[in-house]
Structures are given as structure tokens and as C-alpha cells.
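Quick start: what a row looks like.
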Amino acid sequence: MDRDNASIVAVIDDDDDVGDVLGGLLETMGYQFETYRSGMDFLSKAKFDRLACLVVDQNMPRMTGLEMIENLSDRGINIPALLITGIHDAEVERKAANLGVMTVLEKPMSHHELLRFISISVG
């Protein structure tokens, strides 16, 4: 998949408030973004070749963030991803690393770390 012109940040989080806050932050910083309220919604609607990176909540109903990333990986789709989690969990961090997740941040997360990941991914 050719992602040379990918410039959009995808935010996948079932919490409307988190999606709105992240969207507002990204908009303020001048990034293009799309928000999805579930992994299933993302997998069925996103145009992967346009995405520079993913900001993914781990704890979502029906499909966790890692399950969604694993689904992409199984399809041969590798998009830089940052995983957000509400609870520190060494097993989640290990699985994330094995799937190539670049960063795992705990809520409440540092906007500085989030923006650093995005700036590296978007270029």
C-alpha cells in the first residue's frame, strides 16, 4: 500500500469527550484528522492509504485497540500507532511492542508526548 502522501491522523476512541479533546488539539496544531468511535467503525470506513498515524484507545467495547491493530497487521497494513490506556498493564505493553506499536501512553496522557509522536509520523 502506497502511503507516501498520507497526512491524516486517525483517532479511534469510544469516549466522545476524549475524541473531541484530541480533535480540538489536532485542529489547533493544524493537523488533518478523522475520528472513529470503535475499532469496527474504523476498520469498515477508513481509507488506510491516507492515514499517517493512529491514536488508538485500548479499552473499547467489542474490539480492543490491540485487536484492531492486529487485524490491520494480519492484512499487511502497518500504520504507525500510539496506544492510549487507562490502566498500566505490562502485558498490554508487551503485546503492543510485538505488534509494532510505537508508543503506549496512560490516561491522562501528556499532550507533549502525543504531539511528538504525531509530528514524527506526519512529517
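That is the whole record. Residues 69 and 75 are 10 Å apart (CA to CA). The first helix runs from residue 16 to 28.
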